[in-house]
Amino acid sequence: MNVIPSAKKTELNNGLTLVTEDISSVKAVAMGVMIGAGSANETKRQGGLSHLIEHMTFKGTPKRSAYEIAKELDAVGGKMNAYTTKEYTVYYAIVLDKHIDTAVDVLSDIVLNPSLDPPALEMEKGVILEEIKMYQDTPDELVHDLFAQQILREHPIGRPTIGNADSVKGFTRDDLLDYRKDWYTPDNTIISLAGDIPKKSRQMIEQAFGRWQGKSRKPGSIKASIKGGLFLKKKKTEQVHLCLGVRGVAQTDEERYPYAVLDNILGGNMSSRLFQEVREKRGLVYSIFSTSTPFRDLGLSYVYAGTSKKNLEQVIELILAQFGQIKNHGVSPEELNRAKENMKGTLVLGLESTAARMNWLAKSEFYYGRTMTIDEIFTKVDKVTNDHVIELAERFFRDEYLNLTVIGDLADLPVKELHC
User: Fold this and answer.
1) Domain limits at 274?
2) Does the residue 218 lie in any domain?
3) How far apart are CA 119 and CA 161, in angstroms?
């Protein structure tokens, strides 16, 4: 099953990377423009700037108004959107193959030529300030960012992508222009296409993006000082929301796949240990799961749960007990095989759309400098053993890394220290 075997990579003269996968069995084409700039590229004062620029990119160019940008894609039945992460920003469009010229024209126009009009900027800052307020009122989402901030201290990866009210209020048009000059450059950009790609597509991309010039500031690697601890954000909520976790593995670490198997067994699905022990057997939560979040140079791994005040201490104890069980006793052959098959199935099913494959091409190029195949990943997953799982649990499930972050209507936390 050599999924994505036909991926082709070329580099334009200005340093821009183009990765394509032709899938003749579909009629759609997904096109993405990935800029290697996210919240991890920002200084503390710039918190939220990548996200604001993403918003402003759709607010008009000298050639098109915001309405005309939306109208052109709507007129051909296409979709267009964008998202900002810790490490990159992606602008994308999905169209029928015969309308690839519209996707290329509109995406190149908004990425290369945003007007960044000051009145529109002030209005959009107001939109994001409301988004921040909404986020603050959503504790089951907010707790994840608070956990990252607490365990990573002042590391840029730990800062919220959305920024904060003070930083967003202070941004000027010059701030956006300076940031774009540093990071919105062809050598820091990957364009990916997946679907029934017309032969003229590469020529159109070269014409649209080929005259783009500039060199990016290469991001330096900042060493993360990951430390355990306890943190409570007092807030009137019906439930108590918690994240309890440790440092994890980086995106490019070979141990990412054994760690992903461990994470899957711990809390990756409905048959996982935590879901069964905490929800199904004891009824202490509605939602509980574990997640491993790898970045370029570091990773985080943690469990999220939402529970009542009276159940909080027991839920914490059960999570720590599972950390200790895996560290001291490993996992069963049945658990290991089930996790591997679950991961492989989820991976393949997740690549059923042209949009997913477009994203796969870009992320693979961004982190590895090449296109990863499914066969390659399957081989790595199949090699994972119980010894791998135990070794990783012993290395990462350590008291000095344990961090508990809680949001809830509590006077204090029910635990004073953490052990697993």
Assistant:
1) 229-408
2) no
3) 23
For the chain, which residues score pLDDT lower than 50? 1-2
Q: Please tell me whether residues 380 and 292 are part of one structural domain.
A: yes
Q: Are 354 and 94 in contact (CB under 8 A)?
A: yes
Same-domain check for residues 187 and 249: no
Same-domain check for residues 54 and 195: yes
Question: Scanning the structure block, which residue is given the tokens 């000027």?
Answer: 172
* Backbone angles phi and psi of 258, in degrees to 5: -60, -35
| CB-based burial, 347-386: b 16+ in 10 Å, e otherwise | beeebeebbebbbbbbbbbbbeeebbbbeebbebbeebeb
Considering the domain architecture, whether residues 204 and 233 belong to the same structural domain is answered as no
Q: Name residues whose C-beta falls within 8 Å of residue 221's C-beta, 6 or more positions apart in sequence.
A: 297
Tell me how many helices (H) and strands (E) the chain has.
Answer: 15, 11
Helix H or strand E segment including 19: strand 17-22
Beta strand 17-22 pairing with 189-195:
parallel
CATH of the domain at 256: 3.30.830.10
51 domain residue, yes or no: yes
* Catalytic option among 21, 42, 54, 87: 54
Domain boundary among the residues 177, 209, 241 is at 209
Whether 54 is catalytic is yes
- Check whether residue 355 and residue 399 sit in a common domain: yes
Whether residues 279 and 353 fall in one domain: yes
The closest alpha carbon to 245, from 89, 403, 108, 106, belongs to 403
Domain-embedded: residue 26: yes
Q: What is the pLDDT of residue 1?
A: 45
Q: What are the pLDDT digits (tens) for 364-417?
A: 999 999 999 999 999 999 999 999 999 999 999 999 999 999 999 999 999 999
The pLDDT value given to residue 225: 79
Same domain? 59 vs 23: yes
Report whether 16 contacts 187 (CB < 8 A): yes
Question: How many angstroms separate the CA atoms of 247 and 229, rounded?
Answer: 12
The CB-side HSE value for 266 (13 A sphere, CA atoms) comes to 32
Q: What's the structural domain count of the chain? A: 2
Can you read off the two tokens belonging to residue 324?
């200790």
